[in-house]
Amino acid sequence: MEDDDAVFRALADPTRRRLLDSLHERNGQTLSELCAQVGTTRQAVSKHLAVLETARLVITLRRGREKRHYLNPAPILDLAGRWIGKYERRRLFALAELKRELEEESHD
User: Fold this and answer.
1) Over the Cα atoms of the chain, what is R_g?
2) How confident is the model over 24-35, as pLDDT tens digits?
3) What pTM did the predictor assign?
4) Which helix (H) or strand (E) holds 59?
5) Which uninterrupted H or E stretch holds 77?
6) pLDDT at 88
7) Which of 12, 14, 15, 25 lies most in the core, judged by the most C-beta atoms within 10 Å?
8) Which CATH number fits the domain 1-72, given the four candidates 3.40.640.10, 1.10.10.10, 3.10.310.20, 3.40.50.720?
């Protein structure tokens, strides 16, 4: 659950969500490119990226002096499975049960 908390905390900030959206549109951006995308200082973007990296939502790769940032959607998919999926399952079971009952009524 600690990992979930880090992901929720990272997603709670609109600037971090904009950074993720930017990486979704064009993966492998540098810090300078991300700063230009969100219109924020290097220091602010670096702090946001640190939070995203802690939550494992962003992975960085260094090539020489250049550091590129990549979106890692796996933690979001994990959350969807644990938090959203369990509520959807209940709804799907309810719909299946309703369908079964309606079909039984139509055969009577």
Assistant:
1) 20
2) 999 999 999 999
3) 0.77
4) strand 58-63
5) helix 74-79
6) 73
7) 15
8) 1.10.10.10
